[in-house]
Amino acid sequence: MSFKNKKPIRTALAIALAAAIPATYAFAPVPVEATAGDLDKAVAALRGISTMKADFVQTDRNGQSVAGVMTLKRPGKIRFEYAKGVPMLVVSNGKSMYLVDYEVNQVQRWPISNSPLGALLDPGRDVKKYGKLVSTGHPDVVSIEVRDTKRPEFGVITMIFTRDSSAPGGLRLTHWVALDSQNHRTTVRLRNQRYGVAVADSAFTFKDPRKTSRRPR
Hints:
Layout: H1 6-15, H2 37-47, E1 51-59, E2 65-73, E3 77-82, E4 88-93, E5 96-101, E6 106-111, H3 118-121, H4 127-130, E7 131-134, E8 141-147, E9 156-163, E10 171-179, E11 185-195
Antiparallel strand pairs: 1-2, 1-11, 2-3, 3-4, 4-5, 5-6, 7-8, 8-9, 9-10, 10-11
């Protein structure tokens, strides 16, 4: 897609990085009832991801979508490489999240703990302490909502998993919905997840567009 009407997409990236649009699920033939123990399983599934690559489609509250490739390396590192024609990059080096806009040569930065994605990335975020199970209407789909009631400015992230014995912890992260403190929602849906792939730390650096002479961060 052409990168027209970029303001809504840029805003969504900056505030959430993630309209709850249903994903396509591959259900197990024998349903397993969701239980309180699924919260523990979801935590184990997240902690069991050492590295992961996946194709993603990100949709903002206005229905505009952009696609790309996500690379994750725990603890705390993630990169959203957008498709050709989208001159932006979102990357976390384990401590800070950066939104890099190469069209206007700007970089925004904030601690990963301040983003809804902190539940996925921040090793100090206690997902079990702040998370709760949300009914999905299907026993093989597990939904976990994570929010810090004492820090509403951090927003809310709802992570959706499907039961899959081949995924870490037996749950495959299929998509998430992020909601910021202004109630702006964005969804990121994943497919073609690959676990345990080799990922160099250099994948989580970027060329700073503000000064071309700067070294990659």
